[in-house]
Amino acid sequence: MSNPIISPAVGALLVGSGLAVVLAVPYVAAQYRRYGRLGFWRLVGNVALLIYVIALFSYTLMPFPESTQVVRCMPAQLDPFRFLSDIAAGQAAADGRLLRNTAFLQVAFNVLLFMPLGVLLRGLARRGAIVATLTGFAASLLIELTQLTGLWGVYSCAYRVFDVDDLIANTGGALLGSLIALPVFAFSGPASERVARPVTAGRRLVGMVVDVFIIGAAGFVLTLGIRTPVYLSGGELDAIPSALSDATGLWIPLALQLLSVLATGATLGEHVVALRAVTGPVPAPLARPIRFLAGIGGYGLLLAAEFPGAGVVTALLVLASIVAVFVGDRRGLACAVAGMRVVDNVPAPVSAG
Fold first, then answer.
1. Beta pairing partners, 341
2. What is Dmax (Cα atoms) for the chain?
3. Is residue 353 part of a domain?
4. Is residue 211 very low, low, confident or very high in pLDDT (cuts 50, 70, 90)?
5. How far is CA 255 from CA 82, 98, 247, 258, in A?
6. CB neighbours of residue 29 within 10 Å
7. CB atoms within 10 A of CB 116
8. 93: Cβ–Cβ under 8 A, 6 or more apart, which residues?
9. Calpha distance 170→149 (Å, rounded)
10. Where a domain ends, among 195, 225, 260?
């Protein structure tokens, strides 16, 4: 039997982690375009926010009834602060022990459930107690109304209790979380907006990781696209031509990288981290194909190669590419071979008049 406290948290962690992987590339792109860097604590905070939102949904609205015709409709509780009398009445049954008083524990859980919202608002958005209180109230009201309306008409009536005391406790939890987080973030200034930043080794490495991720993700999606109809129709997956599997799994994603390099000089991963390529002494029509073959293109071709030692050569190329971003002006191995370099892609300021 699933634990009603632990199971939603575990589910939120798993689903949130999966969504974080799916949203990784657009998130990295947004961060580099806004701030010019990928802040570690901002990344942790945003992943935490994603998991928290899913957990909040799980705890407050799930499990759903099996049928849209709800067997037991739940009446609304509209008496403010009734939890005080419920706690007082429950003390006798709990032998005077507050931590065994179910009414108290319910209120405490509702407060704790919304405290992370106040913390995250102060840490990520640099918003104070007033915004946390209003946001907590709005979020709690949305949840309570969703319960009251049976998921906005999906179910025949309210399958969970609309409780004004939950609204009070949740709002108080968001306020309390903001106040608790105040000492931690009191001396943290607002997150700096996008300004020109140097090309760092970390930024180059993130771009390389994104390049490999894009090839893998695109290959997975395309392969799934051709395998799913075959599976659903009852066909044999082994009957799919190997040439088609190779094309969707590697060649088409690699072709997308080739088009990006030929058209702009930069890989897709470099565009994600807001870098652009600058051609050196070698003309662009020659430099860009060389850059592709010495970098992500060569990596992709080696993945498909079947000659003896292909794995060792691939590993050496990856190692050399990583080491090269720590040398000189961070141009990296592929750009160095092609006589190119990458620079920060910050639009030039528009002069007045």
1. 278
2. 86
3. no
4. very high
5. 65, 65, 10, 5
6. 16
7. 21
8. 101
9. 19
10. 195
Residue 144 near residue 163, CB atoms below 8 Å: yes
Tell me, yes or no, whether 324 lies in a domain.
yes
Q: For residue 20, what are its two tokens?
A: 């974080």
| DSSP annotation string for 55-90 | HHHHHHH-SPPSSSS-SSPPPPB--TTHHHHHHHHH
The reported pLDDT for the residue numbered 9 is 74
**Contact in structure between 235 and 167 (CB atoms under 8 Å):** no
Token digits for 286? 């020659």
SS3 343: strand
182: domain range?
Answer: 71-195
Q: Which of 314, 336, 339, 340 is nearest to 326 (CA)?
A: 336
If one counts every other C-beta atom within 10 angstroms of the C-beta of residue 352, the result is 4
Same domain as 232, residue 291: yes
For residues 206 and 153, give the distance between their C-alpha atoms in angstroms, rounded to a whole number: 45
* Assigned token pair, 182: 């105040």
Overall average pLDDT of the 1-15 stretch: 73
Distance CA 237, CA 231 (A): 7
Determine contact, residues 210/28, Cβ cutoff 8 Å.
yes
What is the residue whose two structure tokens read 């160095």? Answer: 336
Whole-number CA gyration radius for the chain = 27
pLDDT, tens only, 118-169: 999 998 888 899 999 999 999 999 999 999 999 998 998 898 999 999 999 9
DSSP 238: G
Task: Report the C-alpha gap between 85 and 82 in whole angstroms.
Answer: 6
What's the token pair of residue 103? 């009414």
Domain edge (last residue) among 63, 81, 100: 63
Secondary structure tally for the chain: helices H, strands E: 16, 2
